[in-house]
Amino acid sequence: MIKIENVHVSFGEFKALQQINCAINEKDFILILGHNGAGKSTLLDTVSGRIIPTQGKIFRNNTDITTLSEAKRSQFISRVFQNTHMGSVATMTVAENLAMATLKGKIAGFKSAIKNFPEYIVEETLKPLNLRLEEHLNTPIGKLSGGQRQIITIVMATLCDPDILLLDEPTAALDPVSTENLLQFVHNFTKQRKMATMMITHDEQRAKFLANRTWVLQKGFLQTE
Ligand SMILES: Nc1ncnc2c1ncn2[C@@H]1O[C@H](COP(=O)(O)OP(=O)(O)OP(=O)(O)O)[C@@H](O)[C@H]1O
Fold it and tell me: What range(s) does the ABC transporter domain occupy (predicted)?
């Protein structure tokens, strides 16, 4: 589905990624491991289009998307950041944030998206989670707990029905119980939606039940299984 061919990313003289060759296939769940500064976020940034490689090519279903903008890629690649503040607007309610997420990749329609809140999200996604998130639709998202906000952010990231979900340490700010809940949610959700997922984690032991592949980055070089 996504093929990365001999990709290099440099920041000035610094080589953050070198000779990256890999493929992400349908329904893959790939754990990305590696020490601090190994290049994990840079790899996700390169897949999402936030960073354009210095060298090499990226293909989606044999189409070259190496220079396709992040905004255009967001229709089929969704990124969730470690810092939930980057994925949602704290002062807007949960419902407003969810409505806004349905517009991803489009410019127009914000007012009408908020007015016509998509109820299917409540019925199909929030209620089955059994976390009572549907009772917080009118709560500003900044008032939710870290775990609740992260779950809503992941739901938001999937509303445009992407082929690939990119998760950057989604449990970094969570306590052990919330971590288990979130990982279970990610497991069920990505399986149900048949979505390929790349997830950065520093907690391989907890997360490995999710994955069919584990990749390790070391000083910008990638070892794939
Ligand atoms: N915009 C940039 N300009 C210069 N150097 C950068 C930039 N972005 C990342 N780097 C460097 O590239 C290297 C890889 O960074 P990256 O954020 O990908 O690491 P990481 O594996 O995600 O680390 P962590 O586990 O700490 O989040 C680091 O040495 C970092 O300082």
Answer: 2-225
Phi–psi pair at 129, nearest 5 degrees: -70, -20
Strands, E assignment, 25-163:
29-33, 55-60, 63-64, 77-80
Q: Enumerate domains of the chain plus CATH numbers.
A: 26-55+63-223 (3.40.50.300)
Nearest CA to ligand 1 atom 4: 11
Q: What is the ipTM of this complex?
A: 0.97
Question: Whole-angstrom Cα distance, residue 87 to residue 84?
Answer: 5
| Banded model confidence at residue 104, pLDDT cuts 50, 70, 90 | low
Ligand 1 centroid from CA 211, angstroms: 24
| Cβ of 147 less than 6 Å from ligand 1 | no
CA of 126 to the centre of ligand 1 (A): 34
In the predicted structure, residue 154 carries a pLDDT above the cut 60:
yes
Point out the ligand 1 atom lying closest to the alpha carbon of residue 39.
18
Calculate mean pLDDT across residues 40-66: 96
Whether the pLDDT of residue 134 is over 80: the answer is: yes
Phi, psi of 174 (to 5 degrees): -105, 150
Can you name the residues that pair with 214 across neighbouring β-strands? Answer: 31
pLDDT at 112 over 80: no
Q: Which of 79-88, 137-146, 206-215 has the lowest mean pLDDT?
A: 79-88
